[in-house]
Amino acid sequence: MTHGATPAAQQAALRHVVVLGSPGAGSFTTAVAQAYCDEVRACGQEAEIRDLYAMGFNALLANSERPTAPDYRQPADVAAELAVLETAAVISFVYPLWVGMPPAIIKGYIDRVLGAGFEEPERRSGDRISTLRGKRLLSFSASASTRPWLEEHGQWTSIRQGIDSYLSTVFELVDGGHVHFDSIVEGVSESYVRQCLADVREVARRTCAAVLSERHARQNDARRLQLSH
């Protein structure tokens, strides 16, 4: 327990929210999400999977959800997801790549939840601070093709810049990296899958250590500020 921290800060668990976009309960990406959460819990932090397919998440952005719409309103399901994300220290996206891109349900989650009330000129001018500011963004993806092939055809750059870097910039998130597993095909060897999941657990351990260190640094800064007054 860190001396000088408020009771709420001492007791609040660091939470990881994993947004899973995979329709198969027994899929590789589902195993990735579960392995990540299991390791986070083993590190003494909290983890929750938001399984978009299992939830029946509606990926379609209605016109009334656009901030410029005269009848703008925030739907209850979006408000619920935002409430979950706001309690997280880490937000992880886990998904397969289909035709070189994330599933539509992931893009729909980004559009409807992260983009709720989003107006780009307002963000660019710095007039509005994101409620997700300072949270760590982490991504895991898998595909049948290899990463060199994705790079050769521009898809890897598109994903890293068009999703990871863009979201980190406009929502003031910390880019925690993107782990990609390639050559995930029917009949993939069990040993390869075990190695991939071991890599997931290692990333989870490093991420837990990073957010815990950041919390301690904030608490120490707060204590020094308190003592200086």
Automatic annotation (TrEMBL):
The source's domain of life comes to Bacteria
Tell whether Ribosomal protein is among the UniProt keywords: no
* Start and end residues of each Flavodoxin-like fold domain: 16-174
UniProt-recorded name of the protein: NAD(P)H dehydrogenase
Pfam families per the record? Flavodoxin_2
Q: Which UniProt keywords apply?
A: Oxidoreductase
Q: Which family does it belong to?
A: Belongs to the NAD(P)H dehydrogenase (quinone) family.
**InterPro entries to which the protein is assigned, alphabetical:** Flavodoxin_fold (IPR003680), Flavoprotein-like_sf (IPR029039), NAD(P)H_dehydrogenase_qn (IPR051545)
Is Zinc given among the entry's keywords? no
Q: Which source organism?
A: Sphingomonas glacialis
